[in-house]
Write a structure and sequence with these properties.
Blueprint lengths: L16 E4 L2 H4 L4 E5 L11 H13 L4 E5 L4 H13 L3 E6 L10 H8 L3 E5 L1 H5 L4 H8 L7 E2 L7 H14 L5 E6 L3 H9 L3 E6 L6 H13 L5 E4 L13 H14 L8 H14 L7 E5 L13
Parallel strand pairs: 2-10, 3-4, 3-6, 4-5, 7-8, 7-10, 8-9
Antiparallel strand pairs: 1-2
Length: about 300
């Protein structure tokens, strides 16, 4: 099989870097820059393009099996890639209680793009990396598939995100990104010559070890100057607070930008709080990576 020609999808690279005049930053002498990775491609936006590109080349046209939750941006991007490039996709979805129920807009989009959805119980999903569990899952798919981990984060994904850091070199003093599985931060830090900040959107304190392991797999050891601030997950993945919602609505209204809640809102909210705390020296140019767009609405016509 031949590797898909990703260039024919015409990704917008490098993605735009847009300055934002926001008093929550300017009053502290800071410059906020939005790295608009959400504009790379309408169906494979943000870090999903960067993390999937090398994996799709490695898959070389084979069906791709991957993992995600009920609102996974990664599942949507993988399904869209399959539709656009002509390969089959399988999504292993966390939560067997979802089977047989009407699909939410995110999963409906996956199905409309041709993805086969396999719903598994949460215990099985947690153990998906164990060889016996993975073999059992693969046994439900009667064909040779290329497996991409949850969130797309593996060594190839990390290598794909190195370009993100390089695109920001010289234009920003600090690069910041929201983190789910750690792959984007691992690659960003490797390519960016300055400090990189990760804002986890899950609670648990496990992400530092994940980033280190991903850099070990991709580069053979640590790369770059990065750190995590674990305070802005707002209760965990897919959870928000009234304060976060108010911030996202206000930021979007001020700057004419719809703010994705699961990742981008928490990143920007965290950066605003850090600015208020005096965590950044005056004159610092902060690049915040906009990794995605808001969830699709109830429209699965495509």
């Amino acid at each position: 099989m031949n590797a898909p020609d990703l260039a024919r999808l015409r990704p917008r690279l490098p993605s735009p870097l847009e300055p934002v005049e926001d008093e929550r930053f300017t009053r502290h002498g800071l410059t906020l820059l939005l790295k608009r990775d959400d504009l790379i491609h309408p169906d494979l936006p943000g870090n999903k393009w960067r993390k999937l590109a090398l994996n799709l080349r490695a898959a070389a046209g084979r069906p791709v099996l991957t993992f995600g939750g009920a609102y996974s941006n990664h599942l949507r991007a993988t399904a869209a890639a399959g539709r656009l490039l002509g390969f089959r996709t399988v999504g292993v979805v966390r939560g067997d209680e979802l089977a047989g129920r009407p699909l939410n807009p995110s999963l409906a989009r996956c199905a409309a793009d041709g993805m086969r959805l396999l719903f598994v119980d949460r215990a099985t999903y947690r153990a998906k990396h164990e060889p016996a569990v993975l073999a059992r899952l693969l046994g439900q798919v009667p064909e040779d598939v290329y497996v991409v981990p949850e969130g797309g984060s593996n060594a190839l994904a990390v290598e794909g995100c190195v370009a993100l850091g390089r695109e920001l070199a010289g234009a920003a003093d600090l690069a910041a990104v929201a983190c789910g599985t750690g792959g984007t931060l691992a690659g960003l830090a490797a390519g960016f010559p300055g400090p990189a900040l990760g804002v986890p959107v899950l609670r648990g304190g496990f992400l530092g070890a994940e980033v280190r392991a991903l850099q070990e797999a991709a580069f053979g050891g640590p790369r770059g100057d990065w750190r995590l601030d674990e305070r802005f997950h707002c209760g965990g993945y897919a959870r928000t607070t009234p304060e976060l919602e108010a911030f996202a609505e206000d930021f979007g209204a001020r700057h004419g930008l719809a703010i994705e809640r699961l990742y981008v809102a928490k990143l920007l909210y965290g950066l605003g709080a850090l600015a208020e705390e005096g965590a950044f020296a005056p004159g610092t140019r902060i690049a915040a990576v906009v990794t995605g767009s808001p969830e699709p609405q109830a429209d699965s016509s495509r």
